[in-house]
Write a structure and sequence with these properties.
UDP N-Acetylglucosamine Acyltransferase, domain 1, 2 domains, five-stranded mixed β-sheet, 21% strand, elongated
Length: 164
């Protein structure tokens, strides 16, 4: 079986596209993206669009029970596979093509590199940086930097597979 390598630099926008009527994660991200675009555009129409997308974001945040601040820096291609109970601090930075499962918390200034997969229930307590192509195991509690390509798991999280 040939595995398609996911880029850590070039966003795959198809990962965020709304495909069905009920795609809460994608709709939450769409509201975030459009809010940020309207805010950058400015002017009267931009302010009106900001209000609309802020309300849309509030609706999907409530449906998902997810806290993803409207001004959080999020790289393209983010996947919120099961967007329930995700808490992301406003100072967190998420790289391109990351995937975050349910019940994940990014507490404080956590920086995720490109193509980082964060397993269900993981808690990342910053400040810390996670390198490109890293994998955070389910229910891991990460309190230290994670090297690129590494897999970490456990409480506290330890490297179980090196990125080399």
């Amino acid at each position: 079986m040939i595995e398609k390598q996911v880029s850590a630099e070039v966003p795959d926008w198809s990962r965020e596209s709304v495909r069905r009527v009920w795609d809460p994660g994608q709709k939450l991200l769409r509201a975030l993206r459009r809010y940020q675009a309207a805010k950058a555009r400015g002017g009267v129409l931009g302010r009106l669009a900001c209000k609309y997308w802020a309300l849309n974001h509030l609706f999907w945040s409530t449906i998902c029970q997810t806290e993803l601040h409207l001004n959080t820096e999020v790289g393209g291609g983010l996947r919120l596979t099961h967007p329930t109970g995700i808490i992301i601090h406003p100072d967190a930075k998420i790289g391109v093509n990351c995937m975050i499962f349910h019940q994940v918390t990014l507490a404080g200034p956590v920086v995720l590199g490109g193509h980082v997969d964060v397993g269900a229930g993981a808690k990342l307590i910053g400040p810390l940086t996670v390198g490109d192509h890293a994998v955070i195991g389910a229910n891991a509690v990460v309190t230290k930097d994670v090297p690129a390509g590494a897999t970490v798991a456990g409480i506290p999280a330890r490297v179980i597979r090196d990125g080399g």
